[in-house]
């Protein structure tokens, strides 16, 4: 009996040990799988964000430049570098094609070069780096990624006037089918100014190099197809981007009902509308019209929407919101690019509507069978620097049955066969008539759209309409 008891205890202990080992292995396997999935998801998000930025960089005829500039910005942000340049091989030498930040590896001593990114990029394009010359020229021969703790103390940077200001430098080659396509170079650690780049930052740069090469391959293939096919692809990309930006459906905000309509004059739209939740009580309803039409206008609306949504996270007042939005667009867009915008801040708790506009059309309200037109002052976004912009705001209580209309000038500037504009007077009269018949917002929209379509000989501008009604 004693021997059987000992055997039973031995078997029990052995079973516990085996089960413990199996459970440990199972837990370890689950942990590794979860870590792999997290890493894969992080990599997927990173590539998705990069492709989104790459898509946004394609504008009109500057597809290659826009895409490569977007790539340089992405690398700078992802590696915490103060500046980045992307070089491509041109007749055996390196030539810069894009730049981010105040990139110091240029051979000119002219300080004005660093005042504008455009000047710096033009300088990089003019300066070629032959094989074997300095740090970057050496990479043509070595084709190996390299990290330098301090460019100021490395003799390979002696030819640059700004050498004394160099901190850490790192570069990675872009290689396709065994051939060197180009080099990515990042200068100065933004995370720790004056310190070398960390190994993690260096590894990050090497991981990003294939993404940049992918962008290069895409835009190279893009440039090799016919102009007609290229335009078709641009339009398809713009259409997809635009559709992804428009809100899905029309919201109900407490007692407020919102309905939007948009009709493009071309394949893509220079108008847009958006609904942004500020907090539990307030929602921002926007309508905008970018200067021009087609793809450039579409890309400007995409930028405006993106900036507006980022500012809404720290919303204070409508005036402050428009000032910050205008300043951001003024700094990040060309001088001949601007956008008009009208916005209503709906407060469903106090049943208030606050309206402001930036060079946009008037706000029209219908209540108790009366029309009221509001025209607060405010310049279009992106034209003036922050110190010169000011926006008036109007706040009104919204009674039950009140209908509010925001619209783009594509309606009022619709032209008939004789060259006469539809005008605001006819638009307001159509709006008033439709509201007097107690139609739904969809029916009011249909009445206005049909009236304008019947009037105009052909559509020459984008047409967007946003209606707000309190039940």
Itemize the secondary structure elements and their pairings.
Elements: H1 2-57, H2 63-79, E1 81-90, E2 93-100, H3 117-126, E3 128-129, H4 134-142, E4 146-148, E5 169-176, E6 179-189, H5 199-224, H6 227-245, E7 252-253, E8 256-263, E9 271-277, E10 282-290, H7 294-312, H8 318-332, E11 339-347, E12 352-358, E13 363-367, E14 370-374, E15 393-397, E16 403-407, H9 409-412, H10 423-436, H11 441-455, E17 463-470
Antiparallel strand pairs: 1-2, 1-6, 2-3, 4-5, 5-6, 7-8, 8-17, 9-10, 10-11, 11-12, 12-15, 13-14, 13-16, 16-17
Helix pairs in contact: 1-2, 2-5, 6-7, 7-8, 10-11
Outline:
The protein folds into two domains: 162 residues, Beta-Lactamase, CATH 3.30.450; 235 residues, PPM-type phosphatase domain (Phosphatase 2c, domain 1), CATH 3.60.40.
